[in-house]
Amino acid sequence: MIVSNIALIGRANVGKSTLMNTLVGEKIAIVSDKPQTTRGKITGIYTDAERQIVFFDTPGIHNPKNKLGGHMIKAATETLTDVDAALLVVEPKMPGSTEIKLCERLKASKIPTLLIINKIDLVPKDSILSVIAAYSPLLKFDSVIPVSAKNKDGVDIVFSAIKEYGTESDPLFPDDIATTMTMRELASEIIREKFLIHLRDEIPHGIAVEIVKFKSTETTKGEPISEISADIICEKKAHKAIIIGKNGNMLKMCVSEARIELEEMFGEKVFLECFVKVREKWRDDESMITNLGF
Ligand SMILES: Nc1nc2c(ncn2[C@@H]2O[C@H](COP(=O)(O)OP(=O)(O)OP(=O)(O)O)[C@@H](O)[C@H]2O)c(=O)[nH]1
Ligand SMILES: [Mg+2]
Protein backbone atom coordinates (compact mmCIF):
# COMPACT_ATOMS: atom_id res chain seq x y z
CA MET A 1 0.00 0.00 0.00
CA ILE A 2 0.97 3.68 -0.18
CA VAL A 3 2.14 5.07 3.14
CA SER A 4 2.42 8.83 3.62
CA ASN A 5 3.70 10.93 6.50
CA ILE A 6 2.08 14.35 6.55
CA ALA A 7 2.80 17.22 8.96
CA LEU A 8 0.31 19.94 9.87
CA ILE A 9 2.07 23.14 10.79
CA GLY A 10 1.14 26.77 11.38
CA ARG A 11 0.51 29.55 13.84
CA ALA A 12 -1.38 28.76 17.05
CA ASN A 13 -5.19 28.58 16.88
CA VAL A 14 -5.55 28.37 13.08
CA GLY A 15 -7.35 25.00 13.26
CA LYS A 16 -4.60 22.39 12.69
CA SER A 17 -6.02 19.96 15.25
CA THR A 18 -9.57 20.44 13.97
CA LEU A 19 -8.34 19.72 10.44
CA MET A 20 -6.40 16.62 11.49
CA ASN A 21 -9.41 15.22 13.34
CA THR A 22 -11.55 15.81 10.25
CA LEU A 23 -8.99 14.13 7.98
CA VAL A 24 -8.61 11.12 10.27
CA GLY A 25 -12.36 10.95 10.80
CA GLU A 26 -12.03 10.69 14.56
CA LYS A 27 -11.28 13.04 17.43
CA ILE A 28 -7.62 12.48 18.23
CA ALA A 29 -6.30 15.92 19.11
CA ILE A 30 -8.02 18.24 21.56
CA VAL A 31 -9.36 21.56 20.28
CA SER A 32 -10.12 24.84 22.00
CA ASP A 33 -10.58 28.50 21.18
CA LYS A 34 -7.40 29.33 23.16
CA PRO A 35 -4.04 29.47 21.34
CA GLN A 36 -1.39 26.88 22.32
CA THR A 37 -3.86 24.09 22.90
CA THR A 38 -1.63 21.40 21.37
CA ARG A 39 1.56 20.97 23.40
CA GLY A 40 3.36 18.14 21.61
CA LYS A 41 3.42 16.20 18.35
CA ILE A 42 0.18 14.20 18.02
CA THR A 43 -0.12 11.30 15.58
CA GLY A 44 -3.41 10.63 13.81
CA ILE A 45 -3.64 7.64 11.47
CA TYR A 46 -5.99 7.05 8.53
CA THR A 47 -6.02 3.62 6.91
CA ASP A 48 -8.06 2.13 4.05
CA ALA A 49 -7.44 -0.76 1.64
CA GLU A 50 -5.00 1.22 -0.53
CA ARG A 51 -3.25 3.62 1.79
CA GLN A 52 -2.17 4.63 5.22
CA ILE A 53 -1.76 8.32 5.99
CA VAL A 54 0.08 9.20 9.18
CA PHE A 55 -0.69 12.78 10.17
CA PHE A 56 1.43 14.72 12.64
CA ASP A 57 -0.42 17.55 14.33
CA THR A 58 1.99 20.01 15.92
CA PRO A 59 1.91 22.79 18.52
CA GLY A 60 1.12 26.19 17.05
CA ILE A 61 4.07 28.47 16.32
CA HIS A 62 4.23 31.40 18.75
CA ASN A 63 6.86 33.45 20.60
CA PRO A 64 7.69 31.18 23.55
CA LYS A 65 7.59 32.88 26.95
CA ASN A 66 8.76 29.88 28.99
CA LYS A 67 10.58 26.55 28.67
CA LEU A 68 7.37 24.68 27.86
CA GLY A 69 6.81 27.05 24.92
CA GLY A 70 10.37 26.38 23.75
CA HIS A 71 9.75 22.62 23.80
CA MET A 72 6.50 23.12 21.89
CA ILE A 73 8.21 25.05 19.08
CA LYS A 74 10.96 22.43 18.94
CA ALA A 75 8.38 19.63 18.67
CA ALA A 76 6.70 21.47 15.81
CA THR A 77 9.83 22.24 13.79
CA GLU A 78 11.39 18.81 14.37
CA THR A 79 8.31 17.22 12.82
CA LEU A 80 9.34 18.84 9.53
CA THR A 81 12.50 16.76 9.27
CA ASP A 82 10.99 13.48 8.11
CA VAL A 83 7.70 13.87 6.27
CA ASP A 84 6.53 13.38 2.69
CA ALA A 85 4.60 16.66 2.66
CA ALA A 86 3.50 19.48 4.93
CA LEU A 87 0.15 21.17 5.24
CA LEU A 88 0.79 24.81 6.10
CA VAL A 89 -2.45 25.78 7.79
CA VAL A 90 -3.32 29.49 7.87
CA GLU A 91 -6.33 31.71 8.48
CA PRO A 92 -7.79 33.71 5.57
CA LYS A 93 -5.65 36.74 6.45
CA MET A 94 -2.50 38.34 5.09
CA PRO A 95 0.65 36.37 6.04
CA GLY A 96 2.41 37.60 9.20
CA SER A 97 6.00 37.13 10.32
CA THR A 98 5.18 33.60 11.61
CA GLU A 99 3.93 32.50 8.20
CA ILE A 100 6.81 34.21 6.37
CA LYS A 101 9.37 32.43 8.57
CA LEU A 102 7.60 29.10 8.17
CA CYS A 103 7.63 29.48 4.40
CA GLU A 104 11.38 30.18 4.51
CA ARG A 105 11.93 27.07 6.60
CA LEU A 106 9.78 24.91 4.33
CA LYS A 107 11.56 26.25 1.28
CA ALA A 108 14.98 25.45 2.78
CA SER A 109 13.88 21.96 3.78
CA LYS A 110 12.45 21.31 0.28
CA ILE A 111 9.38 19.59 1.75
CA PRO A 112 6.45 19.65 -0.70
CA THR A 113 3.95 22.03 0.89
CA LEU A 114 0.22 22.50 0.48
CA LEU A 115 -1.22 25.80 1.61
CA ILE A 116 -4.45 25.21 3.50
CA ILE A 117 -6.48 28.36 4.04
CA ASN A 118 -8.80 27.39 6.88
CA LYS A 119 -11.85 29.09 8.43
CA ILE A 120 -13.18 30.30 5.07
CA ASP A 121 -16.66 30.20 6.64
CA LEU A 122 -15.68 33.40 8.49
CA VAL A 123 -14.88 35.59 5.47
CA PRO A 124 -16.48 36.60 2.16
CA LYS A 125 -15.42 34.28 -0.70
CA ASP A 126 -13.83 37.04 -2.81
CA SER A 127 -11.42 38.02 -0.02
CA ILE A 128 -9.67 34.64 -0.30
CA LEU A 129 -8.17 35.54 -3.67
CA SER A 130 -6.12 38.37 -2.18
CA VAL A 131 -4.88 36.03 0.56
CA ILE A 132 -3.75 33.50 -2.06
CA ALA A 133 -2.02 36.30 -3.99
CA ALA A 134 -0.16 37.41 -0.85
CA TYR A 135 1.08 33.89 -0.15
CA SER A 136 2.16 32.95 -3.65
CA PRO A 137 5.51 34.83 -3.65
CA LEU A 138 6.51 33.23 -0.31
CA LEU A 139 6.79 29.62 -1.49
CA LYS A 140 6.02 27.49 -4.50
CA PHE A 141 3.04 25.61 -3.03
CA ASP A 142 2.07 22.30 -4.63
CA SER A 143 -1.59 23.22 -4.07
CA VAL A 144 -3.60 25.96 -2.42
CA ILE A 145 -6.82 24.72 -0.85
CA PRO A 146 -9.38 26.89 0.95
CA VAL A 147 -11.29 24.88 3.56
CA SER A 148 -13.48 25.05 6.59
CA ALA A 149 -12.24 22.26 8.83
CA LYS A 150 -15.08 22.93 11.24
CA ASN A 151 -17.77 22.53 8.55
CA LYS A 152 -15.81 19.77 6.74
CA ASP A 153 -15.91 21.98 3.65
CA GLY A 154 -13.07 21.35 1.16
CA VAL A 155 -11.47 18.68 3.35
CA ASP A 156 -12.12 16.02 0.68
CA ILE A 157 -9.98 18.11 -1.70
CA VAL A 158 -7.13 18.12 0.83
CA PHE A 159 -7.53 14.39 1.12
CA SER A 160 -7.26 13.81 -2.63
CA ALA A 161 -4.27 16.16 -2.87
CA ILE A 162 -2.40 14.24 -0.16
CA LYS A 163 -2.70 11.04 -2.20
CA GLU A 164 0.14 12.37 -4.39
CA TYR A 165 2.69 11.87 -1.62
CA GLY A 166 4.15 8.80 0.03
CA THR A 167 5.88 5.57 -0.82
CA GLU A 168 4.91 1.97 -1.46
CA SER A 169 5.45 -0.02 1.74
CA ASP A 170 3.85 -2.24 4.34
CA PRO A 171 1.57 -0.32 6.70
CA LEU A 172 3.36 1.22 9.68
CA PHE A 173 0.40 0.65 12.00
CA PRO A 174 -2.43 -1.92 12.27
CA ASP A 175 -5.55 -0.75 10.43
CA ASP A 176 -7.65 -0.37 13.60
CA ILE A 177 -5.29 2.13 15.23
CA ALA A 178 -6.08 5.83 14.84
CA THR A 179 -3.39 7.22 17.11
CA THR A 180 -0.21 6.24 18.90
CA MET A 181 -1.42 7.94 22.08
CA THR A 182 -2.02 5.65 25.05
CA MET A 183 -5.32 5.64 26.96
CA ARG A 184 -3.46 7.44 29.74
CA GLU A 185 -2.33 10.20 27.37
CA LEU A 186 -5.79 10.49 25.81
CA ALA A 187 -7.35 10.81 29.27
CA SER A 188 -4.88 13.52 30.25
CA GLU A 189 -5.56 15.49 27.06
CA ILE A 190 -9.36 15.20 27.23
CA ILE A 191 -9.32 16.38 30.85
CA ARG A 192 -7.05 19.32 29.93
CA GLU A 193 -9.37 20.23 27.04
CA LYS A 194 -12.31 20.76 29.37
CA PHE A 195 -10.34 23.20 31.54
CA LEU A 196 -9.06 24.97 28.42
CA ILE A 197 -12.60 25.38 27.14
CA HIS A 198 -14.12 26.65 30.38
CA LEU A 199 -11.35 28.80 31.86
CA ARG A 200 -10.16 32.17 30.68
CA ASP A 201 -7.21 34.54 30.49
CA GLU A 202 -3.84 33.12 31.50
CA ILE A 203 -5.24 30.27 33.64
CA PRO A 204 -5.73 27.64 30.89
CA HIS A 205 -2.17 28.14 29.64
CA GLY A 206 -0.78 27.33 33.10
CA ILE A 207 -2.70 24.09 33.45
CA ALA A 208 -1.21 20.62 33.14
CA VAL A 209 -2.85 17.29 33.85
CA GLU A 210 -0.92 14.48 35.44
CA ILE A 211 -2.56 11.05 35.54
CA VAL A 212 -1.59 9.59 38.91
CA LYS A 213 -3.69 6.43 38.65
CA PHE A 214 -5.13 4.58 35.64
CA LYS A 215 -6.54 1.21 36.51
CA SER A 216 -8.59 -1.02 34.19
CA THR A 217 -10.78 -3.09 36.44
CA GLU A 218 -14.38 -4.30 36.91
CA THR A 219 -17.39 -2.91 38.71
CA THR A 220 -19.14 -5.08 41.33
CA LYS A 221 -21.53 -6.06 38.49
CA GLY A 222 -18.57 -7.31 36.45
CA GLU A 223 -18.59 -4.46 33.89
CA PRO A 224 -15.23 -3.11 32.71
CA ILE A 225 -14.32 0.28 34.19
CA SER A 226 -11.31 2.59 34.01
CA GLU A 227 -10.52 4.17 37.36
CA ILE A 228 -8.62 7.39 36.79
CA SER A 229 -7.11 9.85 39.26
CA ALA A 230 -5.58 13.01 37.91
CA ASP A 231 -3.81 16.02 39.34
CA ILE A 232 -4.77 19.32 37.77
CA ILE A 233 -1.62 21.38 38.09
CA CYS A 234 -1.82 25.15 38.04
CA GLU A 235 0.65 27.93 38.70
CA LYS A 236 -0.98 30.04 41.42
CA LYS A 237 -3.13 29.67 44.53
CA ALA A 238 -5.56 32.21 43.06
CA HIS A 239 -5.85 30.04 39.94
CA LYS A 240 -6.60 26.98 42.06
CA ALA A 241 -9.60 28.76 43.59
CA ILE A 242 -10.94 29.68 40.14
CA ILE A 243 -10.37 26.16 38.79
CA ILE A 244 -12.33 24.68 41.70
CA GLY A 245 -14.96 27.40 41.43
CA LYS A 246 -17.83 28.36 43.70
CA ASN A 247 -19.01 25.25 45.57
CA GLY A 248 -16.61 23.26 43.41
CA ASN A 249 -18.83 23.84 40.40
CA MET A 250 -16.13 24.54 37.80
CA LEU A 251 -14.16 21.44 38.75
CA LYS A 252 -17.31 19.31 38.83
CA MET A 253 -18.39 20.50 35.38
CA CYS A 254 -14.99 19.88 33.76
CA VAL A 255 -14.57 16.47 35.40
CA SER A 256 -18.08 15.41 34.42
CA GLU A 257 -17.62 16.50 30.77
CA ALA A 258 -14.27 14.72 30.60
CA ARG A 259 -15.72 11.54 32.13
CA ILE A 260 -18.61 11.43 29.65
CA GLU A 261 -16.26 11.90 26.68
CA LEU A 262 -13.78 9.31 27.96
CA GLU A 263 -16.58 6.77 28.47
CA GLU A 264 -17.58 7.30 24.85
CA MET A 265 -13.98 7.07 23.65
CA PHE A 266 -13.06 3.95 25.65
CA GLY A 267 -16.48 2.30 25.25
CA GLU A 268 -16.67 1.53 28.95
CA LYS A 269 -17.47 3.10 32.30
CA VAL A 270 -15.00 5.62 33.68
CA PHE A 271 -14.55 6.69 37.27
CA LEU A 272 -12.68 10.00 37.28
CA GLU A 273 -11.42 12.03 40.23
CA CYS A 274 -9.32 15.17 39.93
CA PHE A 275 -7.31 17.10 42.53
CA VAL A 276 -6.09 20.63 41.92
CA LYS A 277 -2.46 21.28 42.89
CA VAL A 278 -0.30 24.39 42.72
CA ARG A 279 3.24 24.17 41.31
CA GLU A 280 4.60 27.66 40.87
CA LYS A 281 6.35 28.34 37.55
CA TRP A 282 6.14 24.69 36.47
CA ARG A 283 6.31 25.80 32.84
CA ASP A 284 9.92 26.82 33.45
CA ASP A 285 10.77 23.67 35.39
CA GLU A 286 12.60 21.29 33.07
CA SER A 287 11.95 18.20 35.24
CA MET A 288 8.22 18.97 35.53
CA ILE A 289 7.99 19.43 31.76
CA THR A 290 9.74 16.09 31.22
CA ASN A 291 7.59 14.32 33.82
CA LEU A 292 4.47 15.57 32.12
CA GLY A 293 5.71 14.10 28.85
CA PHE A 294 6.08 17.31 26.87
N1 LIG B 1 -15.07 29.26 12.17
C1 LIG B 1 -14.19 28.27 12.14
N2 LIG B 1 -13.53 27.95 13.25
C2 LIG B 1 -12.63 26.94 13.20
C3 LIG B 1 -12.38 26.22 12.01
N3 LIG B 1 -11.44 25.29 12.27
C4 LIG B 1 -11.14 25.42 13.58
N4 LIG B 1 -11.85 26.41 14.14
C5 LIG B 1 -11.82 26.87 15.54
O1 LIG B 1 -10.56 27.47 15.80
C6 LIG B 1 -10.15 27.25 17.15
C7 LIG B 1 -8.78 26.63 17.18
O2 LIG B 1 -8.85 25.32 16.65
P1 LIG B 1 -7.70 24.25 16.90
O3 LIG B 1 -7.96 23.11 16.01
O4 LIG B 1 -7.53 23.99 18.36
O5 LIG B 1 -6.44 25.08 16.38
P2 LIG B 1 -4.89 24.68 16.39
O6 LIG B 1 -4.27 25.29 15.20
O7 LIG B 1 -4.74 23.22 16.56
O8 LIG B 1 -4.40 25.44 17.70
P3 LIG B 1 -3.07 25.19 18.59
O9 LIG B 1 -3.06 23.75 18.98
O10 LIG B 1 -3.28 26.08 19.75
O11 LIG B 1 -1.92 25.59 17.73
C8 LIG B 1 -11.25 26.37 17.76
O12 LIG B 1 -12.14 27.20 18.47
C9 LIG B 1 -11.90 25.73 16.55
O13 LIG B 1 -13.24 25.37 16.78
C10 LIG B 1 -13.12 26.58 10.83
O14 LIG B 1 -12.97 26.02 9.76
N5 LIG B 1 -14.00 27.61 10.97
MG1 LIG C 1 -3.86 22.15 18.05
Structure description:
The relative contact order is 0.14. The chain has helices spanning 16-24, 67-79, 97-109, 127-135, 155-162, 183-198, 237-244, 249-266, 286-291; strands spanning 2-9, 42-47, 51-57, 85-90, 113-117, 143-146, 167-168, 208-218, 224-234, 269-278. The protein has 294 residues and is of the alpha/beta class. Strand 4, helix 3 and strand 5 (113-117) form a beta-alpha-beta unit. The protein has two domains: 2-168, Rossmann fold (3-Layer(aba) Sandwich), CATH 3.40.50; 183-291, GMP Synthetase, Chain A, domain 3, CATH 3.30.300.20. Strands 1, 2, 3, 4, 5, 6 and 7 form a seven-stranded mixed β-sheet that branches. A three-stranded mixed β-sheet has the order 8-9-10. It binds guanosine-5'-triphosphate and magnesium ion. Guanosine-5'-triphosphate is lined by residues 12-18, 31-33, 35-38, 59-60, 118-119, 121-122, 148-150. Magnesium ion is lined by residues 16-17, 29, 37-38, 57.
Lay out the secondary structure.
Elements: E1 2-9, H1 16-24, E2 42-47, E3 51-57, H2 67-79, E4 85-90, H3 97-109, E5 113-117, H4 127-135, E6 143-146, H5 155-162, E7 167-168, H6 183-198, E8 208-218, E9 224-234, H7 237-244, H8 249-266, E10 269-278, H9 286-291
The structure holds guanosine-5'-triphosphate and magnesium ion (MG).
